[in-house]
Inverse folding.
């Protein structure tokens, strides 16, 4: 009888303990869910803009002001930053790539820096953060399922140096969808951009107070398919084309400096003057090859944004200009139409 | 005569000028295939088809770099035979060889 009672008690203790463990795990889960939405005390909260874009003047200003705030906070000693994306509704490829690049660079180069975030209220914006891996980078749980057509077709790559195989990671998917010659042109433009980033973009420190190793010369890349068009965006966080010209093209730089050209015209000068070979220095076609490849196809366009300047080529027409603020790096953008796919 | 397919024997993803730029640069291709053939006075047929594409830095360093190293342009043009469906690629490489300058003409 006594043995049977002891057995019953043990059974009861076992079930009570199990129940207690279950309840505890539920409480832990609730706490965990709360931390992904509400900033943890002692984190410095920085409110992200409504839209991340660097092509339109107003949204570019808010995007760049936000990125500067993040950089300055980290550089001034803040080690816990909370990015509040709650009100962010739109991620445009160029601005979003710059955001990813800036955050990655800070995390990789500022000791003990922790950056976390609150997810956007907009489901599509949350999907984008999930798809491009930014919520993972910021160690924030994101349950958004990437289902929207214009989100699932974002692909991203990151690397250092001219690594042609990286091209296939995000653009191999389009084999057979776009012509072989267009694929070849795009490959050429992108690998030249990788080479350029490795050789010239990081010739000096960026000047934002965050010191990086001289061997740290990364690039970032996105591809996005939207509205029947394929866009590829490439970015480096180097000194920018206008600031690299005194080192890479001193004669051209002195000539342009005398004319007091805007940064947009300086980029245009760098593209126009990248020749196959001069009698003094061996050079490839460099910028010319980067910009002319896709822009020569029907409906294709290419755009370079570097520091304050911009230069575009579309259907053989060149344009350039200057913004009031600098992206502190270079973003190259290619766009081309995709053929219609059959419903099957 | 020796034949190589760049895509099969070297890589499908050629990119970059110098070896420090990436794993399959123009400098590496030149050192691995072009220089040994020219040093042995051998004719080398290079099939360029099958690779993803060729940036000008890769081509200029691989072929133009031979002249900079001291191989006469005429010798490079006669000993290295190029095959490609894209004839503009062959013209581009030949122009890099012709326009490249040898070590004695370089400005230091």
């Amino acid at each position: 009888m006594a043995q049977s009672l002891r057995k019953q008690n043990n059974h009861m203790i076992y079930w009570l303990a199990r129940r207690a463990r279950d309840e505890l795990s539920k409480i832990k889960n609730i706490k965990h869910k709360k931390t992904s939405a509400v900033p943890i005390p002692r984190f410095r909260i920085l409110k992200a803009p409504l839209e991340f874009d660097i092509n339109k003047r107003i949204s570019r200003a808010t995007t760049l002001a936000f990125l500067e705030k993040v950089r300055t906070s980290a550089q001034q000693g803040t080690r816990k930053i909370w990015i509040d994306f709650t009100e962010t509704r739109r991620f445009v490829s160029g601005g979003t790539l710059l955001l990813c690049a800036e955050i990655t660079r800070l995390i990789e180069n500022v000791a003990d820096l922790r950056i976390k975030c609150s997810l956007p209220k907009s489901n599509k914006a949350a999907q984008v953060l999930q798809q491009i891996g930014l919520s993972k980078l910021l160690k924030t749980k994101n349950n958004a399922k990437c289902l929207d057509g214009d989100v699932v077709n974002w692909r991203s790559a990151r690397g250092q140096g001219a690594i042609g195989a990286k091209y296939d990671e995000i653009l191999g998917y389009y084999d057979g969808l776009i012509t072989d010659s267009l694929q070849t042109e795009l490959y050429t433009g992108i690998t030249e951009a990788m080479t350029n980033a490795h050789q010239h973009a990081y010739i000096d420190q960026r000047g934002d107070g965050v010191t990086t190793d001289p061997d740290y010369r990364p690039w970032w890349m996105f591809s996005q398919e939207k509205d029947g068009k394929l866009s590829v965006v490439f970015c480096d966080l180097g000194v920018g084309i206008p600031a690299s010209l005194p080192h890479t093209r001193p004669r051209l730089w002195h000539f342009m400096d005398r004319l007091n050209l805007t940064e947009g015209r300086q980029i245009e000068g760098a593209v126009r003057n990248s020749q196959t070979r001069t009698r003094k220095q061996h050079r490839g076609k460099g910028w010319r090859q980067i910009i002319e490849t896709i822009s020569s196809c029907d409906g294709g366009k290419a755009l370079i944004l570097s520091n304050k300047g911009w230069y575009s080529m579309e259907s053989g027409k060149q344009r350039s200009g200057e913004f009031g603020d600098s992206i502190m790096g270079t973003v190259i953008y290619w766009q081309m139409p995709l053929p219609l796919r059959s419903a099957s | 005569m020796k034949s190589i397919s760049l895509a099969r024997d070297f890589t499908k993803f050629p990119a970059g000028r110098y070896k420090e730029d990436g794993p399959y640069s123009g400098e590496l291709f030149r050192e691995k295939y072009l220089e040994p053939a020219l040093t042995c006075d051998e004719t080398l047929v290079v099939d360029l088809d099958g690779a993803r594409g060729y940036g000008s830095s890769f081509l200029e360093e691989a072929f133009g770099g031979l002249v900079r190293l001291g191989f006469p342009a005429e010798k490079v043009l006669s000993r290295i035979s190029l095959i490609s469906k894209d004839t503009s690629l062959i013209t581009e490489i030949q122009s890099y060889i012709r326009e490249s300058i040898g070590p004695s003409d370089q400005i230091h």
